Amino acid sequence: MLVGQSCLISRAFPSSCEQESKWSYMTNHILEKTSNKRLHDVVSGGHSEVMDKDQWRQTKSPKLTDSSTSKSDCRDSDNLISAIGRDNSISCLMWCSRSDYGVLASLNHGFRSLIRSGELYGRRRKNKITEHWVYFSCNVNEWEAYDPYRARWINLPKMPPNECFMCSDKESLAVGTELLVFGKEVNAHIVLRYTILTNSWSPGIAMNSPRCLFGSASSGDKAIVAGGSDALGAILSSAELYNSETQTWTTLPSMNKPRKMCSGVFMDEKFYVIGGMASNTELLTCGEEFDPEKGTWRVIPNMSLGLNGASGAPPLVAVVNNELYAAHYAHQEIRKYDKENNVWITLGKLPERPVSMNGWGLAFRACGEQLIVIGGPRALGGGVIELHSWIPKEDEPPEWNMIARKQSGSFVYNCAVMGC
């Protein structure tokens, strides 16, 4: 792995280390060559002094590129890395870490337009290049993200102020390059949409049948939501597909059973709804499997048996390498689902420090090849949030590692993992 303007995340990419290193070196070398060429042009164009690094950074201001460039500079901007052309530039840049895209967007108008258009992320998706970041909210109307590859925290802009939305129950879903947060405004459900392309919040597109307390999961630029309750409290069996590229909702066939407070996952190219409540008192232990190819639902008896109680949070489930895991918050255990026998097998204990209130305030997510538990210990005089990680290995008990810790609220209201 090379360190510089271009950096690769080797475990996230399917190709060999040798190929990654070649791409990384090529991108880094060409960017430096382009920068040196521009530096020479600036110096020879009337500046007799030798510029230091700070002065050189000022010459790369996007304002100069946007307002006072020559026609040649504009053509270079459109070509991105002018020495190799636009298509080859994108082929190089898609292998860079998404952590570098903010810096790349500041180089000139061409780079900024490329990052904001989403084309680069589309290329990454087609080539199965994915980095997973964890997004979560421990304070009302505030979100932050954690990049496990660079071990850094990112503060998102604050959500638009809305008192009703702030006080309502909320669901979250990361799909494509978007983070969707679902809540309520007086008697209507609304959606707020954050996009990494512009680092901003805006109103999202409402579902065909708006709801809350639903199960959901995403795969690439698509997501499915199922169940939940409407604005009048009726429990739903309907399901919808969201396409983040077109920002549209499509109604899918309904489930066999209406349910709310359920969980959702993608596994083996199928969507599963797990657990939930059939009424305010009736706990469901069955799951349902949706086959996108056939457009049909299948009931799986006892799929969530024993994972949660009627007064607890929805089942805390996550999928890594097409294997389903659950965090049993009552017994502080990590369990694995045996698909063939439809039973849960206890693997070991959850991390000791994060605590919850019947599962509320604790997040359990898949983040690439690892499982992550997010929560905080009980503490007086200020909260702390911790991220614990474990990479599942066959027939081995869990060994949790604390990968991040910071001062924050210790109760996780919402959490989603964005892979792009």
- Low-pLDDT segments: 1-26, 33-74
* Sheet with most strands: strand arrangement: 3-2-1-24
Distance between the termini: 20 Å
Tell me the fraction of residues in β-strands, as a range.
25-35%
CATH architecture of the largest domain: 6 Propeller
Radius of gyration: 24 Å
Mean pLDDT: 83
Show the helix and strand layout.
Blueprint: H1 17-44, H2 53-59, H3 62-67, H4 71-79, H5 86-93, H6 101-105, H7 109-117, H8 119-126, E1 132-139, E2 142-147, E3 152-155, H9 163-167, E4 171-175, E5 178-185, E6 188-195, E7 200-203, E8 215-219, E9 222-226, E10 239-243, E11 248-252, E12 263-267, E13 270-274, E14 287-291, E15 296-300, E16 316-320, E17 323-328, E18 333-338, E19 343-349, E20 363-367, E21 370-375, E22 384-390, E23 401-407, E24 414-419
Antiparallel strand pairs: 1-2, 1-24, 2-3, 4-5, 5-6, 6-7, 8-9, 9-10, 10-11, 12-13, 13-14, 14-15, 16-17, 17-18, 18-19, 20-21, 21-22, 22-23
How would you characterize this protein structure?
With 420 residues, this protein is of the alpha+beta class. The chain folds into two domains: 10-126, no CATH class; 132-419, Neuraminidase, CATH 2.120.10.80. The protein contains nine helices and 24 strands. The protein has helices at 17-44, 53-59, 62-67, 71-79, 86-93, 101-105, 109-117, 119-126, 163-167; strands at residues 132-139, 142-147, 152-155, 171-175, 178-185, 188-195, 200-203, 215-219, 222-226, 239-243, 248-252, 263-267, 270-274, 287-291, 296-300, 316-320, 323-328, 333-338, 343-349, 363-367, 370-375, 384-390, 401-407, 414-419. Strands 3-2-1-24 form a four-stranded antiparallel sheet, with no helix packed on it. The protein has a four-stranded antiparallel sheet with strand order 4-5-6-7. Strand 20 and strand 21 form a beta hairpin. It is globular, with a radius of gyration of 24 Å. Mean pLDDT is 83; it is low at 1-26 and 33-74.
